[in-house]
Amino acid sequence: MKYASVKTNLPGPKAQELLNRRHNSVPQGVSFGVPTFAQSAEGAIVTDVDGNTFIDFAGAIGTINVGHSHPKVKEALKDQVDRYIHTGFNVMMYEPYIELTEKLAKLAPGDFEKKALLLNSGAEAVENAVKIARKYTKRQGVVSFTRGFHGRTLLTMTMTSKVKPYKYGFGPFAPEVYRAPYPYVYRRPDGMTEEAYDQYVLEEFKNFLISDVAPETIAAVVMEPVQGEGGFIVPSKAFVQGVYELCQEHGILFVADEIQTGFSRTGRYFAIEHFGVVPDLITVSKSLAAGVPISGVIGRKEIMDEASPGELGGTYSGSPLGCRAALAVLDIIEEEKLNERAAAIGQRVMQKFEELARRFECIGHVRGLGAMCAMEIVQDPQTKEPDKVLTSAIVQEAGQRGLLLLSAGVYSNVIRLLMPIVITDEQLEEGFTILEQAIEAASRSK
After folding, report:
1. Segments forming the whole domain that contains residue 416
2. Is residue 363 in some structural domain?
3. Per-residue model confidence as pLDDT tens digits over 343-391
4. Residue 124 resides in a domain
């Protein structure tokens, strides 16, 4: 059985009509990938308005770990709509909020009492984590990392590293935000071992606390356990533990930004579990609710309780629909053993990536953690010069053949995979075939 089938030009006739309407009503600053529109989606397959079908290796930018339109998520949403849609947790509370915060607190790493706050988006979760950290520590400074991505609001945009398209022309930025070095093993200095490089970057972080900002003024260090938009950069355990220990030494809160990495993407509920440290705060969103907007901050009870009533929250924060979808997702992850499935997918992806790297010299590096995998596209394997143009061409070629792909990285030269973890082996292999064809076609036409 063939899952991907593109029978029309893209955009097809119905999609073209919608695209014309889009251009007349939607600002050009809102980007899009394939030039078509969804009609339906199930599991790892998306069907557009012209009847074309696509294998989804993008997962709505990592929000569909349990797949599109999972029956249990749909059932939970329908049941909730029949009961009530929204009362505002700050006006009249509801049990799904309580049940979800209880489960999140239990799932999060750490053998101590935890509480959780529910919000709407990933950026909002990061903003609130910073608010909570500042309130608790009575400090203002916030440290993020080179190549990190934390959102598009004023504070999170400031914390984000990539200038274009996220920051250019949108300043001035929020004060008291500092950017620390983060390891990038593939681009380490020539002749330096990985172990020596880890130590070098950690020493740079120590120096950063002397040359850039005094540690006693820092409320929080916010780290993606695996950098998402930055190019799926996986740090070493030694680096993460070293930063954590410095935070402990100086009374700085360690915040794990798990918005893209959480809920089985790396083979664990939280990617930070791979690194042997326990964060003070964790931010979550994306795949928590299978596409329904919701986010949260999970943290130590004494830290989360520092803010006074009314200082945290929002009109739609932790909506009943989001809570019910999230509760269904957590059940699905456990019942369908998606952590184990993600680990198995990751092994197969990396095996395939290594095969492709031996065939195509434009693939300079492959890397990943669990099912969070990427390949870096370069002009020359010796110079490692990024190839943004070829990367874009591969993504476009894949889309024309029925495979949804995403690029990433500060140089826009990384192809990242965020397929639903419920994807079947047959769909995965067909997606690999299309990816290989897209690389070959894009390389030929270069």
Report:
1. 337-386+403-441
2. yes
3. 999 999 999 999 999 999 999 999 999 999 999 999 999 999 999 999 9
4. yes
